[in-house]
Amino acid sequence: MTVDNPPVHSVPTRKHTALPKARTLVEALPWLTRHHGRTVVIKFGGNAMVDDGLKSAFAQDVAFLRHAGLRPVVVHGGGPQISAQLERLGLASEFKAGLRVTSPEAMDVVRMVLAGSVQRELVGLLNRHGPLAVGLTGEDARIMTAVKHYAEIDGERVDLGRVGEVSDIDTGAIEALLDDGRIPVVSSIARSAEDGHVYNVNADTAAAALAAALGAETLMVLTDVEGLYADWPHSDDVISKLTASELEELLPELSSGMVPKMEGCLHAVRNGVATARVIDGRVQHSILLEIFTDEGIGTMVVPDDPHDPLDTDAPHDSENEPEETAT
Ligand SMILES: Nc1ncnc2c1ncn2[C@@H]1O[C@H](COP(=O)(O)OP(=O)(O)O)[C@@H](O)[C@H]1O
Ligand SMILES: CC(=O)N[C@@H](CCC(=O)OP(=O)(O)O)C(=O)O
């Protein structure tokens, strides 16, 4: 056999086995083009971190986004992990208006669990894929500054202890890491400029504030339900898309962990973020499904008047999907 006459039968066989993979990659091309260079803030909820397989898949997805040219920022939760540690130490754990009542002793535990345990684990998983992840808390380089937060329950102002809301954000350190090709992994703890104490900030609230301050394209919240249920807990109909005004009307009816999540989504889209999505973190590779396919899952919140329709049309609105790329 000469080089000029290769065996013709071997060429189609090789092509055949590689083709499905090539098609999958090419199908992602319009989405890759759309999202290239955009910042995506991903909130990984403690309830979605249910097993090692899901955590590894999460890290693969985030590393994939980074290698695909997006700028992912991770903000993580850890509510169940904090509760377990408080219980081990015999410290009380109570939630009011979806937020943990946090004594100074509990605050030490919150900080230890979020920054010392959950964040370290995620950084470790991400760094299996290269020298990518850098862990921070809101305290570092004053990324987040807090003020004490009071809840309002039945018209009453309620003191939750060391619970903070974000009063100021300095994105400098995060931007520098992103420009350097790193993946910032942020724990939702912030120091107050007023009293110098460290405060426990709900991770949804922190992620939303960061997404708005960074001018992110998308805020993606991974949790342990399929999305926002229209009539929870009576039905499992997921609201697939809603505008900021529609969400604002729904807010008073929401309960528990959905309150800070949806308030965060509203804050994000009212402050320049093109889409805020609540998706099921229990589905492996839910991030990739949401970003790179037309199988949009979960709930998407969009501004009332999106300034860039391209940002909000996919994947929950199939009429306006990116154009097919010729294969
Ligand atoms: N309308 C709703 N739709 C979906 N989940 C809801 C709704 N209202 C309350 N929830 C509760 O909110 C929870 C998610 O919030 P949370 O427990 O704080 O999760 P995470 O740790 O991911 O932040 C769900 O598991 C569900 O129990
Ligand atoms: C004030 C407040 O409630 N802080 C949260 C911070 C962690 C968090 O938000 O974790 P998830 O995203 O897993 O719920 C807490 O102490 O549980």
Overall description:
With 327 residues, this protein is of the alpha/beta class. It is built from eleven helices and 14 strands. The protein has helices spanning 10-27, 29-35, 52-67, 79-88, 104-126, 172-179, 203-214, 244-250, 258-270, 286-292, 309-312; strands at 39-44, 71-76, 95-96, 99-100, 133-137, 144-153, 156-169, 183-187, 189-192, 198-200, 218-223, 241-243, 275-280, 299-302. Strands 5-8-2-1-11-13-14-12 form an eight-stranded mixed beta sheet, sandwiched between helices. A four-stranded mixed beta sheet has the order 7-6-9-10, with helices on one face. A two-stranded antiparallel ribbon has the order 3-4. The relative contact order is 0.15. Mean pLDDT is 89; it is low at 309-327. Residues 45-47, 77-79, 82, 99-100, 110, 163, 188, 200, 202-203, 257 line the site of N-acetyl-L-glutamyl 5-phosphate. It catalyses: N-acetyl-L-glutamate + ATP = N-acetyl-L-glutamyl 5-phosphate + ADP.
Bound molecules: adenosine-5'-diphosphate, N-acetyl-L-glutamyl 5-phosphate
Helix/sheet category:
alpha/beta
Integer-rounded radius of gyration: 21 Å
**Average pLDDT across residues?**
89
Strand content: 15-25%
- Poorly predicted segments: 309-327
Helical content band: 25-40%
Q: Spell out the helices and strands N to C.
A: HHEHEHEEHEEEHEEEHEEHHEHEH
Pathway: Amino-acid biosynthesis; L-arginine biosynthesis; N(2)-acetyl-L-ornithine from L-glutamate: step 2/4
Organism: Streptomyces gamaensis
InterPro entries: AceGlu_kinase-like_sf, AcgluKinase_fam, ArgB, Asp/Glu/Uridylate_kinase, Glu/AcGlu_kinase, NAGK-C
Catalytic activity: N-acetyl-L-glutamate + ATP = N-acetyl-L-glutamyl 5-phosphate + ADP
